[in-house]
Please model this.
Amino acid sequence: MGRNFRAARVYETVRDFLETDVVKRAAGQRARKPPAWFSAVQMIPPTELLTRPHPIQHSPPDTNARRPHNVYRPTKIVYPEDQMRYQFYKDHPWELARPKLLLEHDGKDGRHRDWSKGLRQPGMALSGESVVQRQLWLLENTPGMSVAEAYDAARHEFYKLRQQEDIARRIAVEEARYVGAYFGKGPIQVSMINEDKAYDEWRVWAYGHIQKAAALREQGSAQVVDMPDVLDVDVGDEGAAAAEAPVIPQ
Amino acid sequence: MIIRNLAIRHGRRALASPVSRPWLRLFSTQPTDMATAFAPAPATTSTGSTTVTQQSLDEAEALKEAKRIRELQFKNMPGEFRELRHLEKRTKSLGSEIVLDAYVPDESLKNPPDDASLEMLMASQAHMGHNTSSWNPANSRYIYGVRAGIHIISLESIASHLRRAARVVEEVAYRGGLILFVGTRRGHMPVVVRAAELAGACHLFEKWTPGTITNRDQILASAPLLMVNHQDDPLNGFVEHLQDRRPLVPDLVVCLNPLENYTLLYECGLASVPTIGIIDTDADPTCVTYQIPANDDSLRAVSLIAAVLGRAGQRGQKRRREAAAEGIVTWETPDEDQRFIDRKIYLDEKEKAEIEAARPQTRSGPAAEQATRGDFNIEQKFAEMFKNGNTGGPQGRRGPPRASRRR
Model:
């Protein structure tokens, strides 16, 4: 408990000490010289500390509240695009699987955007964010447009562009294959291989299961007296050999 | 890229002999295995048996071939390197111009900026505080709001506090103060060293030894000291004084991670040393004199802030040196050094007077009398000098020697 204010009061401490320099005064001498930082800190005082001003209100405060709570707590930052982003990614969840670049260059990206021109912007990948910004621009700049209408307009433009990308990707693969490129296994191929592996494993397990079940049945019927030999069929040498070797049914 | 076309395009070897194998390897997509390329030839195993099998013959052949290739690579390397550099120069201007400038992680080290704009601070992630539940409410004045579960530090407050701290660094450097840049986290070393280099300051990137200020007579006993004049030239004649003198205390400490340097900042508080520190939303703002509320976990943000402070120190040093060149000294000799100088002058004069007095006097006349009278009154003269708390010594613009900032 208790705060340490020595750091905040370095100037006052040294100033008071210099003014009342007991040792030097007793010797009849001038007070000590101030340290090199003294006049600099005197000229540039530290900022206010530990006060809690009323925080910035990012949403209009609740006027119905008789006794507002958490008056000094920082408020949540909200933007009109937040609801639009929520709606878009709820409708298109696989757009979240697209890689996203988080690194900024100089923080001036916003200056190069012009959402009147469409969804494609220089230095920005086509994504849900493009749709949301375009939607906002349409909402603000087209008279009589509702949120839903702007959303529909923006996302249809988006679908066209994604379709173009898909076509371009397909053609690029064809062209690459034509000049000798080869690719790794596609998703369907990988799935088929995994399925085959799983099936083979299952077969081995299933045969073992059948053998165990047969053994249990034999055990269960051990009390039964053997039937007379007249029922045994003479299958010959081949049949006997085949009957003895265990065969996993194909 | 096919080697054949490369040679034709750049013309030098269009009709020359076929490219040698080592050069092919230089441009191939297969990386040259440097370990095997430069590995010494394996020692031939001496076996007891004298029979020579076909397998051992093949192995010997393979070894010889490998050795030949290695030697060829070694021989061709300087020439190949020259070729490579030439081709790089020729092809540098080709290609698209979309990405002319991009983010380079050490841009703050190579081109330290004079000031950080709000956009630069945001791009460096300086505004990203910690989880809202791990905040220190004492920092609420620096916080803009809450977003994605973290506190966002106000960019304006970052910029204004950074500019204030930069002014302090500049002014302390102008007044010849000893500044120390401290950054003890991983990745802080080049940042702190560069900032100190710019500002003519000292740096620390390893653990602060507790007691380096409060117990400095023990810990810094072996640290060398240097006496310099107003133009930063070393001075002679202070060897004994520097051996007896107490170690130095910094005049300003800039700490890039105050949360991990509590002891250092506490000692600075005890010794009345002003401090500057990067205060994140979970840090204690009272531990430093000048707070810079910013993200201390982002190396990019820390690097930017340290670069701005380093540049400020550089400006202060430049102003100080320019003033010194004109004969204006912006600082005063510290008390203990001044005391030594005055005492030395006094003792030297006393010694001179004694020598003069001891010398046999052969002169006569009023001039001689005046001279001798003057010499014998030297003690009285100095007593008068020191009477009214005057510490003596040369005053005024031509600065006296001062204690060093350097090790």
In short: Chain B has a mean pLDDT of 85. Residues 209 and 264 of chain B are 8 Å apart (CA to CA). Chain B touches chain A through 59 residues (CB under 8 Å).
